[in-house]
Amino acid sequence: MSLTTKNVDWMSARKELTKLREKVFVCEWRIPKDVEFDQQDHNACHVLICDEQGEEIATGRITPAGEIGRIAVINGCRKPEVYQQLFSALLSIARAQGLESVSIQCELEGVNDYQKRGFHPVGAVYMDAGIPRQRMVCNIEAFSLPKVELTH
């Protein structure tokens, strides 16, 4: 799978970002549209991942404070190499901004996976749009992704 990564801002890629996130979060996960889109979008750096045909298949954002979020990957494209490319791009942005650590608000089912990547829980579990979540933090240099063997 040949993927292309684009670093974009909200104003230049709003249409593409909105389409992807509505498909994943609003339609598939049933998160209310007014919860999904917030003021953080305007200040965050966004990443778009496109497939071989140039179709947007994944997105994520990182805020100036280093919070990684709004990770949306189209069903059928949720493969390790997509997540690896997405997180690599987001961490590159964090490094370029001089951030020492990043955080993420993950679903409880994801806590163990993020711990394996260098994150540790901070604070209590809380509810967000009806989903129990845990805030997790990771030093950028401690973050790791499993090696992915790309086959052609």
Write the SSE topology.
Elements (H helix, E strand, L loop, with lengths): L3 E5 L1 H19 L4 H4 L3 H4 L1 E6 L5 E7 L4 E7 L6 H17 L4 E7 L3 H6 L3 E9 L2 E9 L13
Parallel strand pairs: 4-5
Antiparallel strand pairs: 1-2, 2-3, 3-4, 5-7, 6-7
Query: Please, how many domains?
Result: 2
Helix content: 25-40%
The rounded distance between the terminal residues' Cα atoms is 7 Å
What is the number of helical segments per DSSP (H or I, 4+ residues)? Answer: 5
- Name the shape in a single word: globular
The major β-sheet equals: 7 strands, mixed
Structural class: alpha+beta
**What is the highest CATH level, the class of the largest domain?**
Alpha Beta
How do you describe this structure in short?
The protein is of the alpha+beta class and 152 residues long. It has five helices and seven strands, in the order βαααβββαβαββ.
Characterise this structure:
The chain contains five helices and seven strands; from the N terminus they run βαααβββαβαββ. The chain is an alpha+beta fold and 152 residues long. The chain has two domains: 1-99, Aminopeptidase (3-Layer(aba) Sandwich), CATH 3.40.630.30; 100-145. The chain has a seven-stranded mixed β-sheet, sandwiched between helices. β4 (67-73), α4 (80-96) and β5 (101-107) form a beta-alpha-beta unit. The longest helix is centred in the first third of the chain and has 19 residues, at 10-28. The relative contact order is 0.15. It comes from Lacimicrobium alkaliphilum.
Descriptive tags:
single chain; 152 residues; alpha+beta; Aminopeptidase; 7-stranded mixed sheet; 7 strands; 33% helix; globular; disordered C terminus
